[in-house]
Amino acid sequence: DVSGKGVGAGLYMAQLKGLVLSLTRQHRSPRDLLIAVNRVLVDRLDGRSFITMSYVVVDLRKQVMTYARAGHCPMIVAPDGLVVGLTLDDGTLFESLLEEVTVPLAPGDLFMLFTDGMSEMMNPAHDCFGETRLGEIAGEHRDLPLDELADRLVAEVRAFGAGAGQHDDMTML
Description:
Blueprint: H1 6-23, H2 30-41, E1 53-59, E2 64-70, H3 92-97, E3 100-104, H4 116-119, H5 131-140, H6 146-161
Helix pairs in contact: 1-2
């Protein structure tokens, strides 16, 4: 998720996509990949821009998922991390806060990645929908086919907003 909107954010996202595709050939570890991405982008983004992201590797043979999160919305309980490209130091702080987590996979597991447009939808009283509520609804309806679950989640978020304008993209995987 790139800070800002419009063409500038779109260009940064395109640059990030190419960078990640290139670096995946060199880095198997999600943590190592995010560190490499940060090293490249830290001097290339303008001072007001940053990127939040998660990087997930699913190993079906070993039945595990390994991920690292750089300031992005949590998929499951995970440590926080700094956003990618924020110029605070030489990258040492970013590397020290970035953790990699490996989770065993089992039949029936549901993992959801999402952007903050899902959890930060506000109602007229300026309350946020929240990550907890999003997780609870996903858990309650986990037996639905995935496309129906996605439709249900978006409908719940929009209903909570009670007609409030959508201020950010709502993306989930």
